[in-house]
## 1
Amino acid sequence: MAKRSTPKKQQANSQSSRRYKTYQNKARKRLLQATSVSKCDKCGEARLSHTACLACGYYKGRVVIDKSKEMDKITKVKA
């Protein structure tokens, strides 16, 4: 394991806090730009912005995912 060098001089508190504040501000910006959730116009269900609604299948007023055809799960494999 590599040994770390000892600091030659003591670091000022303002320098440490400035570096930490920069990190905090970047993290805050990242959280603000995170994915946003909006309501579906058709059914009112919560959905991700700029994506089709998983409950009704509508996006921008038109059907994108056909929810009328529900797929049956295959539970048994015929041999």
## 2
Amino acid sequence: MTAVRSIAVRYFAAAADVAGREDEALVLPVAATVGHLRAALRERYGAEMDRVMASGSFLVDGVVSRDDARALGDAVDVLPPFAGG
């Protein structure tokens, strides 16, 4: 049996629209990575979330990442692409 833990996930802008919420706790393996989270969100919210994640990024422990191998901390923000200047 794989050990699991709860990860706090916060959604912003388009990601929150797709999820229909601003935050939730997901149960993932203890050694979960951004790739694990990406797969869980794809399974949970489908192609629309997949499109948001394809051009967005994740904020893990204060560091923006798109690296599927990056280990998750206790909280992750799902960030859609931002425009501005």
## 3
Amino acid sequence: MKRLISAGILLAFVVAAYLSSLIYIRKTCDETIELVKQCEADYKEGKNAYQTAEKIDEIWVDKEQTLSFFVNHDRIDEVELELSSLLLYSGTDNEILFYEHIETLKMLLYQIKEDSMINAHAIF
């Protein structure tokens, strides 16, 4: 009976840890995606998109350490690389490279968000 209680407590802990990590990842990705969309809109309207890109970078730097517990480090590095490119091109008139990097960044954030969901592919 003691083993069953211990197993139940361990199972509850694992489920709680998974749910809290899932909520944290989804919240972080949603917040970042909204700012990326705002940055894109600012660039289209001719506003200062660089300031919005700096906000994105600040948020990502703040949450990166905690995300590294739950997300593959290669994914985090790819997002950081795209963020640095976004910072570079958000202050220029090179629209093609700006939109290329902003779409790549959105794709990477969506992938991180979707990879955190449990499904048959993630299990096997």
## 4
Amino acid sequence: MKHLIIGVGAAGISAARTILKEKPEDSVVLVSQDEEVYSRCMLHKLISGERDAAGLNFVNDGLLEHKNLEWIKGKTVTRLEAATKSVYAGDEKIASGDTILIATGANSVTPPIGELRTAKNAFGLRHLPDARGIASCAKNAKEVVIIGAGLVGLDAAYALLELGKKLTIIEMAPTVLAINLDAHAAAAYQKLFEDKGVVFHLARKVVNTRGDGRGNITAVELDNGSLIPCDMVVMAVGVRPAIGFLEGSGIKTERAIVVDDYLESSEPGIYAAGDVAGFSGVWPNAQKQGEIAAYNMCGTKWIYDDRFAIKNTVNFFGLLSLSVGAINPADGDEVLVKEDRLNYRKLILRGGVPMGIILQGEIGGSGFWLHLIKNKMRIDNRGKSVWKVSYADFYGTQQNGEYKWVV
């Protein structure tokens, strides 16, 4: 059989590796607009100069040189024909397969504000060309505006600080890292960046831009009338699954591709994994989805049941944080906080069941909390402080001395 995979990110590469392992005689065709494999999680390191493009490559096991793998590079898929399982770039047929995995990821969202979509010195940060464009423009830029104070925005800021740039970050939410952490944990990172000279405008929106008449933005205007001068703009306001090429294909989409428990789309033999399937963009999850989809493409029936992926890690200036599940309580939830000079812990309980936890400083034991939250296991009835609960509290012994799981 021949398997066509669109995309060479975490999901696509994981799928290719799995297929060639499970079905050594089958062939894999990779199609991508990218001409290099790279980790998007590391793009900020290219901006700072810490790594070059080769240093972002996460495939070092010879996979791309496999005799049964063909990689068609630099081709942007504009149309997918489900009936023949073929993909096209304009009128050119690029490739086809007996099965298809769509793993095209997501693209940066660019707000339709002023010249943000057209300016030569305005960039998203999602793909390798974005990072290269930022790095190039930064050589002559002194003042940089970053729109968005989530992980991507702060990654960009961290990299540009290493290049000695003057940074202003604008964020619609009242805190930085609003999706990842609560206000208390996020404030610790805001202070670390402010100590390095970064200026934040929180709970503010960009409403317009000013330009030099030659295609460059020279200032952004905020909703309170403030003008922030700049030589470059980096936009980190979110992403959207890359599914535009599926229009007219018959594949059911909503915000992303609709898939069943086997990651198969509405068209038989066509699967989706990663951001394009609407799941969390966490790297290990995308790899797992690619693996599960690959097994199913090979004829095995594997269910993807790990749809709980609300897990985030943050690390700036040596301060580690991890959040799992809900970071803000709902009405009626119990909130427990434990804090000292070096650590902050916040646990949200609903009926004695942990719904989410934030760990800042020492993040050991996060796997235990992920298990409890994912499996909705009650912990307030163990006769001890919830902070002292461990795996041992959920095991008992049978008459033959073997351990058994006790919920």
